[in-house]
Amino acid sequence: MAAPNKGRRQTGAQGKPGRSLALILIAMVALVGGMFWSKQVTPRLGIDLAGGTSITLKAQSQPGKPNAINQKNMDTAVSIIERRVNGLGVSEAEVQTQGKDHIIVNIPKGTNEKQARQQVGTTAQLYFRPVVTVAAGTPTSTKPSATPSPKASSTAKDKTGSKATPSSTATPQGRAVTDALKAGPTPSASTPAAPQATPTPSAADTAAAAKLEKQFAALDCTTKAGRAKAGGDNVKPTDPTVACSDQGDAKYILGPAAVDGTDVDGAKAVIDQQRGQWIVQMDFTGKGSKKFQTITSKLSQQQSPQNQFAIALDGQVVSAPAVSSTLSGSAEISGSFTQQSAQDLANVLSYGALPLSFKEETVTTVTAALGGEQLQAGLIAGAIGLALVIVYLIAYYRGLAFIAILSLLVSAILTYTLMALLGKGIGFALNLPAVCGAIVAIGITADSFIVYFERIRDEIREGRTLRPAVERAWPRARRTILVSDFVSFLAAAVLYIVTVGKVQGFAFTLGLTTLLDVAVVFLFTKPVMTLLARKKFFASGHPWSGLDPKRLGAKPPLRRSRSTVSASVSSSASTDSKEA
Questions:
Q1: Would you give the DSSP letter of residue 112?
Q2: Letter string b/e over residues 64-98, b meaning 16 or more CB atoms within 10 A of that residue's CB
Q3: pLDDT tens digits along 115-152
Q4: Mean pLDDT score of the chain, rounded to an integer?
Q5: Which residues are CB-neighbours of 438 under 8 A, at least 6 positions away?
Q6: Host H or E run for residue 409
Q7: Residue 222 and residue 249: Cα distance in Å, rounded?
Q8: What CA–CA distance (Å, rounded) separates 414 from 197?
Q9: Which residue intervals of 170-321 are DSSP H helices?
Q10: Helices 174-183 and 203-218 meet at what angle, rounded to 10?
Q11: 298, 191 in Cβ contact below 8 A?
Q12: What is the DSSP track for 353-368?
């Protein structure tokens, strides 16, 4: 009695293939609906297919660092530029070295191309410098005025809540500039006097201060040419310098750099829930935290604008918050930020510290004409390959080819919708190698069907009828399919990890389609095969079903063979008893 119960349980399990089909149908509807809901009905294209902008950057020699342009620093710069561009949501941006001192950046069309180009062009050093003097961005014929800049209205605070409020005291005179040549801002009147006398500035310091003040007075930050003159590449971090705000509405005299960009561990733009304003939160490394604590301790004792520190990038001040207390490892920058400006500043703070400075040498527009021709050739090759696969399936598997074609169609729908959604979600962009990966996947998917079909045929050759053959063949075929797909996925994963650029597109697509192959075979091909095995066309072994026992050279049915053996055994026993 146990055997029939077991058979009924198997039949019950086989009788619910609709659940798997319903599951994959729901997934397909959800993906297609999500694609139209997100208004991303086509995959995003890479620069080779959609065109875009190609930027050539040349590394510049730095004062006091004759050997700075080396392979290690170039590789570091490539990594930082790539992370900075990708931090803007630009996908498929290619950043690679060319020769000893050039970096090529390819930005696909249809992404944040303009903003990415601005970020890529901003490739020099990042420094935190104390503010000595600030004035409006126009040239002045006299000493700097006391008018604070719009950027000076920013404040900085640590996570304890301490923050600065700009004061309106007078701007320091020439003596402050002289002191900046030596050690940054001078103590305010409230600072206790040192026991020793203040050293008298040397003639060289006085002359340098006069030159800096003259340069500051003549500086015109309202023009692009004027901003280019401020804070040039030849300025050392240990020297004071003049700088413009990034908007050109203010100009500064800045003291020696107290903290550099490599001391910033990370930054992010967030909304201050209490004030409803965008702020930038930043964290320092252990070494940077000590430097930041030292400089803010000094600045908190100064009067405005010498209680400000400027965040200077490429000689331009992107923010100049004031400080009223000593800050430690974490700080916030607040001011008149929009969401975009806060995110840009956070991106600069996170990825802006390059080991080299760069000059934008060439900017060219890449057309999609060549890539379009290659794509057309690739699609034609893929169509020919798909047609040959279908012809082979029809000629060899006949009716089973219908199941294989339906499975390929389901796999194509899932692949297309996922590529479209991933373009919106994670910035995946389809390039020529990715198209090649999708074409290769046709063979992988067809191979899984063939493995299953051949297992079913083997069972029929053993003399079983179709329905038990379908179920008995599945466990053996399943193991083979899983092992084969695991090897393909492992190869794709390794290729994705060890390669860069366009080859990663091939690896990503190959891995994605391999996972989809498993889902399609388990949730669609097997349930459909179970349902069709109940149809007379397949169950009766029609010559065009691809499962004709005669064409497959099947043995006599197992049950008939066992009955014949049992009958012969019974007759032999009966004969023996009569003889006895």
A1: S
A2: eeeeebeeebbeebbebbbebbbbbebbbbbbebe
A3: 666 666 554 467 888 988 888 878 875 554 444 443 33
A4: 74
A5: 382, 415, 509, 513
A6: helix 400-425
A7: 6
A8: 79
A9: 174-183, 203-218, 224-229, 286-299
A10: 120
A11: no
A12: --SSEEEEEEEEEEPS
Q: 101 burial class (0-12, 13-18, 19+ CB within 10 angstroms)?
A: middle
DSSP string, 504-571: HHHHHHHHHHHHHHHHHIIIIIHHHHHHHTTSHHHHTT-TTTT--HHHHTPPSPHHHHHHHHHHHHHH
pLDDT tens profile 335-392: 677 887 787 777 777 765 566 777 778 877 767 665 667 777 777 887 888 888 888 8
Amino acid at 26: I
d(CA 406, CA 412): 10
Give the pLDDT confidence of 220-261 residue by residue, as tens digits. Answer: 888 877 777 776 556 777 888 888 887 788 888 888 888 877
Q: Residue for token digits 């049915």?
A: 557
Q: Which amino acid makes up residue 390?
A: I
Q: Which amino acid is at 457?
A: R
8 A C-beta contact, residue 335 and residue 300: no
How many residues would you count in the chain? 580
Amino acid symbol at 303:
Q
Separation between Cα atoms, residue 383 and residue 361, nearest integer Å? 42
In angstroms, the CA 497 to CA 503 distance is: 10
Q: What is the pLDDT of residue 8?
A: 43
Q: For residues 179 and 192, what is the distance between their CA atoms, to the nearest angstrom?
A: 17
- Which residues, other chains included, contact 527 with Cβ-Cβ below 8 Å and sequence gap of 6+? 17, 18, 20, 21
Residue whose C-alpha is closest to residue 327's, from 82, 524, 163:
163
How many whole angstroms separate alpha carbon 380 and alpha carbon 466?
A: 38
The reply to whether omega before 305 is within 30° of 0 (cis) is yes
Average pLDDT over residues 432-436: 82
Predicted TM-score (pTM) of the model is 0.54
- pLDDT confidence tier of residue 155, bands split at 50, 70 and 90: very low
Q: What is the pLDDT of residue 162?
A: 38
Which structure tokens are listed for 405?
A: 């074609």
For 204-224, the pLDDT digits (tens) are: 778 778 888 888 888 888 887
CA atoms within 13 A on the CB side of 56: 11
Segment of 141-150, 278-287, 514-523 carrying the highest mean pLDDT: 514-523
Q: Please state at what angle helix 400-425 crosses helix 369-397, rounded to 10 degrees.
A: 150
Provide DSSP, 438-496: HHHHHHHHHHHHHHHHHHHHHHHHTT--HHHHHHHHHHHHHHHHHHHHHHHHHHHHHHH
